[in-house]
Amino acid sequence: MKISAINSYQTDYNRINRKRVSFEGGKAVYAGSFDPITNGHIDLIKEASNIFDKLIVLVAKNSKKQGFLPFEKRVELIEQSVKDLKNVTVDTYEGLTVDYAKRNDARYLLRGMRSVSDFDNEMQISKINETLNPDIKTVFLFSSSENSAISSSTVREILLNCGDFTKFVPKPVADYLIKLQGGKFN
């Protein structure tokens, strides 16, 4: 039986790509300060929960950032926002994310990108993590176009100027921030 070059190519293509995109048994860590968590973050968490067997949303303490919301409140708000996603858990850690992943048998680090401008910084972090532990791979996901402009710092700026931030954050976060703000919008 003769195999055509096209069939052979297609078989190789399918075999290679199936191997590249298979996350079977995969556990991923999605780390950030989430101060506050936004709808953009939630988009990525939902997408990742469909890709990975288990996803840990890691509220990481960043020594470079002073928190806006109390650390424990961020954890609580994230837990409320992802409670319907059965394979998603929330945890905290202070230290290198790649070390946390190794200790928790996670093979993947999830990084979200809002736009191409995020790529350089995220790629640098990815390469450093790969050097620290070559067994842990970084997976990049882009946020949806409707949420690509949303960042935690933008939400904080809108909040501090009494603007309506509610369309940019999940309901538990909006409810908490409205109380924090005193329910006043311009």
In short:
The chain has 186 residues and is of the alpha/beta class.
What key phrases describe this protein's structure?
alpha/beta, 186 residues, 5-stranded parallel sheet, disordered N terminus, Rossmann fold, 7 helices
Can you give a write-up of this model?
With 186 residues, the protein is an alpha/beta fold. The chain has helices spanning 5-21, 39-51, 71-81, 97-103, 119-132, 152-160, 171-181; strands at 27-32, 54-60, 88-93, 108-113, 137-142. A five-stranded parallel sheet has the order 3-2-1-4-5, with helices on both faces. Mean pLDDT is 85; it is low at 1-21.
Summarize the topology.
Elements: H1 5-21, E1 27-32, H2 39-51, E2 54-60, H3 71-81, E3 88-93, H4 97-103, E4 108-113, H5 119-132, E5 137-142, H6 152-160, H7 171-181
Parallel strand pairs: 1-2, 1-4, 2-3, 4-5
Helix pairs in contact: 3-7
